[in-house]
Amino acid sequence: MCDFEEYIFTCGHNALNLQGYCHQSRNHPRHECNNVKRLRNSWYQERPCNACTDAMNGTGRGNGSSGHSSHREDSRGPFVRDTGEQHWR
């Protein structure tokens, strides 16, 4: 089981941060894990996520709203975003 931390933002989005690989993914060349993901900690942030902040300020590449449609879908998976934060859908 890989260990994750969760960051919960005021905009309603949450971000996951990998804390440590499990034995199976640590030995896999691409660190793939098909086991259960274990959530170690949840941290409440007193701010919106970077993507929503950029959208609200009009500086982001989104459509100007802080909703889900302002986030670009990424073919690499649900954990990767341009902002550096890892969002969970």
Q: What can be said about this structure in brief?
A:
The protein is α+β, with helices and mostly antiparallel strands and 89 residues long.
What does this protein structure show overall?
- This protein is of the alpha+beta class and 89 residues long.
- The protein has one domain (2-70).
- The chain contains two helices and three strands, in the order ββαβα.
- The chain has a three-stranded mixed sheet, with no helix packed on it.
- The model is unreliable at 63-84 (pLDDT under 50).
Series of H and E elements: EEHEH
* Main sheet strand line-up: 2-1-3
Q: Unreliable runs, pLDDT <50, ≥5 residues?
A: 63-84
Tell me the count of domains.
1
The share of residues in helices is 10-25%
**Helical segment tally?**
2
Shape: elongated
Major beta sheet, specifics?
3 strands, mixed
Chain-averaged pLDDT = 74
> How large is the share of residues in beta strands?
15-25%
Q: Class by helix and strand content?
A: alpha+beta
> Distance between termini?
20 Å
β-strand number = 3
CA gyration radius, whole angstroms: 15 Å
Defining traits:
elongated; 2 helices; alpha+beta
Topology at a glance:
Layout: E1 2-8, E2 14-20, H1 23-27, E3 37-44, H2 50-57
